[in-house]
TrEMBL record:
Keyword field contains RNA-binding: no
PROSITE patterns reported in the protein's UniProt record: TYROSINASE_2 (PS00498)
Superkingdom of the organism of origin: Eukaryota
Organism encoding this protein: Recurvomyces mirabilis
Residues annotated as signal peptide: 1-22
Domain Tyrosinase copper-binding stretches: 317-328
Alphabetically ordered keywords of this record: Metal-binding, Oxidoreductase, Signal
Name of one Pfam family that matches: Tyrosinase
Name of the protein in question: Tyrosinase copper-binding domain-containing protein
One term of GO molecular function: oxidoreductase activity
Magnesium keyword on record: no
Amino acid sequence: MRVSSSLGVVAAIAAQIGVVAAQAPQTSDLSAEDITSGTAFGNISRKADENMQQYFGPARGADCTYDNSQQRQEWRTLSPETRKSFTDAVTCLTKLPPTHMTADEAPNYPGVKSRHDEYVATHINYTLNIHDTADFFAWHRTFIHFWEQDLKNLCGYTGWNWALDAQAPQDSPLFLGDEYSLGSNGAYIANRGDTWLAEQDVTYPPGTGGGCVTSGPFTDYTVNLGPLDLPNSNNVNSSFQYNPHCLERDFNPWFTQNYNTYTNVTKTILDNILIEDFQANFQGAGGSDPNNRFGCHGGGHWSTGGSMSDFHSSPADPLFFLHHGMVDHVWTIWQNLDITRRQNVISGTSTLANNLPSAEMTLEDMLPFGFVSEDIKFKDVMDTFGGAFCYRYV
Ligand SMILES: *[C@@H]1O[C@H](CO)[C@@H](O)[C@H](O)[C@H]1NC(C)=O
Ligand SMILES: *[C@@H]1O[C@H](CO)[C@@H](O)[C@H](O)[C@H]1NC(C)=O
Ligand SMILES: *[C@@H]1O[C@H](CO)[C@@H](O)[C@H](O)[C@H]1NC(C)=O
Ligand SMILES: *[C@@H]1O[C@H](CO)[C@@H](O)[C@H](O)[C@H]1NC(C)=O
Ligand SMILES: [Cu+2]
């Protein structure tokens, strides 16, 4: 646990520690069977929802209330027409010209060809300042919000609940490959060996695809940027190199079975009372469990393969935004299980694992959004019913 130098954060953490009997439910309150099956996840989602209803109801007197907030649904609960309008909108975003990059800046970003690329480039640019940092959750919440705003007039926002697909993500209805899906798996590449990841010291087996997406909305999709550090791949030689290639995927149940099950996500929410433990275990970075090298966040990325497994350029696959919809959903549940103590707690600096060392972040800090938007104040993105936000997950 890192020692915080920010008074506000120290006070908030002290408030958490001071109350031994936390109001949020614990693993011991729920049966092992309910945790495995997802029933417990439903129970704690409902508890978080009841808390939100109470706290953000009409009595609050604000414009955004529980009742009028936008509801973000899981992908498979959408009508076929809505799914199609969503992927059409995503394709459209990849064809719109950049909106923030100036003519003077363009030579430094040869791979930025579209509005969507501006998202990818911004994530590449700030990768080491937005993961394993105080603002990991808040930065990504805001990032997907802007992307949603860009799609807004065309369709509603959706997420991917990977826990429903943990046994076999390759068989998920999301990736059937028809026109109402999010596109298929990558073409199967046989005879591949295991891959060893030095940083995590983990060896994983090949997935169920490996090549280009073969059917559905993203077959003609061109990825312009990355990969920067994808294993077994011809990586770019400079961060923003123009490197047009197909969208690759390699769904891999090894990751989802080990990191994205209902047991994994439910216990991560229930067993971590302090924000520093919750965010570390969720990312598998510096978490208290030495077997947990990826967490739900890493598991979702690595289980998809292709761009999604590339640390820097992962937003190149639209699935990034659905994965991070689920990430934000989980953070939102964690926050709302104990709203008054958890709404505004943060912990950590603005550099990955504080390497290179940087100052402890405070809620007064500005979060950088590069080519996505103007920078935004940290404290304005902690509450899904506050600032520019007005949404909840159903
Ligand atoms: C959890 O939800 C199920 C329905 O999905 C319900 O039958 C059960 O009583 C709930 N358990 C708790 C502890 O709230
Ligand atoms: C990076 O440079 C090497 C050596 O010139 C080259 O073989 C490789 O194709 C380059 N990678 C990309 C993605 O352009
Ligand atoms: C995730 O849950 C599965 C059971 O669903 C379990 O086998 C695995 O060990 C868990 N992973 C971690 C990192 O705890
Ligand atoms: C990259 O970061 C620098 C420094 O913060 C900023 O000036 C630039 O606009 C950023 N570019 C992108 C694409 O985010
Ligand atoms: Cu990220």
